[in-house]
Amino acid sequence: MTEEENIDINQQLDNLLTKVQPNLQDVIKRSFTNVALQQTKNGEQVKPDALEDTSYFAKNTQVNLTRLELVKTPTFHMQTLSLDLKSMGLKLRCSLGEVNVKGLYSAFNENLYNLLPVMAEGHLLMTLSNVTADVDVGLVLEDDAYSFINPGIDFTHDEVLVKLSWPSPQRGGGYEFATTEQLARHIDDLPLTAAISLPLYTLLREKLQRHLALVLKQSTSVSEVVCCNPSLLEAYSAMVDSLAKKGNKIIDMVLIDVRRILFQTHTEVLELPPLHATFMHKIGSISFIGKFETDTGWVKNLATINRINDVSVSRIDDATTSFRVTLRIKDLQVGYDEYRMKAMGVSCSGRLAATLGGSALHLALSVGLTRLEPYAQLDDLRLQQMDGMDVHVTGLGPLSGAARGVAAWARGAAAAHAAPALARRLHRALHRALHHLPVRHCNTALKNNLYD
């Protein structure tokens, strides 16, 4: 193919993508609603959507949360959608309405004394009203349909209402409810949503991603988009490959520098504050109060961070290009070299370590020109997923029945302490890496060749 023919094919492709985009956008909107209706008609929820046991730690407050599950599966309702076939990107906003989580809690906190028994346990109902999801994904060609990569999904909501109940002697062993407004008079803060927001949003994100994958599979045909023209399909595939290769090269340069910075500055291991937990250990009908505490903990292997798929690249304007990618810390571990536990007059000690196989981070950055000066900036780094925790505890011995509680405390510590510390450390490393990025060279290459 001559250079003149190649230019003509690229121009035809540009014109075609501009022409078909509005119609395809409408088809995706209709399919989004149809998939929601299909699931409503077909799906009887056999098993409730459950969250793993966890704990909330803040100051001298400790709340254990167990048997957590969604009251009902949310339905996604499309509000807005924007499609860009040239940059291979899709943005949408959908509504989930009200999301309710129920479960059991046990609270051990002297600050609760004026309101609850010091050792209080009962039922929990948490309501997030008017939940919406802003979705930004990259598109890829898969067989004859579009699929998506690098999902950036941000949840927002209005009021959060937490209801707690506990056994009430006044009601003959029934349950009495109180809201967080009442609890707030007696403790500084009890944001129980902080304990479940990461696993809850992970669950909702997975459901939304399955919904969107089905929508794209049912509603999009790449061959129809290019009118079954082999030359246009070849040009389209080449354009998509070019976007990914250039994006991969730049992000890989950044990540190589991030790993180097973590190693050279000895910052790939993070320190975690000690854990202190009080718990109720039951043997038959008899309950014993137990204590659990650790020395300083750690998070390690941050330098195993890497991308797991191609980079999504989009041109914001003539001077700015955006990159989005999904990252994973391959061997992320959280642990405490020594813990001590005592209950019913029995003591034990050992080591606690947990491997998180399901970590996922969403990275967005941009390069561009401002007043003819090149720049690179970090737009977003968000820990979207931190699950798949495999917990190993040594030395439990006669208190082996508390193993489930120890795992819940480890999850709580990962959410409350490890996740924010990890994000802060990677933010600093990324800022330094972007400072070293040869932005002028990258920007020139992107400007000249991005959509060639």
Structure report:
InterPro entries: Mite_allergen_7_sf, Mite_allergen_group-7, To_sf. It holds the Pfam family Grp7_allergen. It is a single chain. This protein has helices spanning 3-42, 180-183, 193-219, 222-225, 230-264, 403-436, 439-449, and strands at residues 50-51, 54-58, 61-70, 77-84, 89-108, 119-142, 145-156, 160-168, 174-179, 270-272, 276-283, 286-294, 297-300, 305-307, 312-317, 320-329, 332-343, 346-370, 373-393. By secondary structure, it is an alpha+beta fold. The protein folds into 2 domains: 3-225, Bactericidal permeability-increasing protein, domain 1 (Super Roll), CATH 3.15.10; 243-449, Bactericidal permeability-increasing protein, domain 1. It starts with a helix and ends with a helix. Mean pLDDT is 83; it is low at 184-189.
Which key features would you list for this structure?
2 domains; 10-stranded antiparallel β-sheet; alpha+beta; Bactericidal permeability-increasing protein, domain 1; globular; single chain; 452 residues; 9-stranded antiparallel β-sheet
List the helices and strands and how they pair.
Blueprint: H1 3-42, E1 50-51, E2 54-58, E3 61-70, E4 77-84, E5 89-108, E6 119-142, E7 145-156, E8 160-168, E9 174-179, H2 180-183, H3 193-219, H4 222-225, H5 230-264, E10 270-272, E11 276-283, E12 286-294, E13 297-300, E14 305-307, E15 312-317, E16 320-329, E17 332-343, E18 346-370, E19 373-393, H6 403-436, H7 439-449
Antiparallel strand pairs: 1-3, 2-3, 3-5, 4-5, 5-6, 6-7, 6-8, 8-9, 10-13, 11-12, 12-17, 13-17, 14-16, 15-16, 16-18, 17-18, 18-19
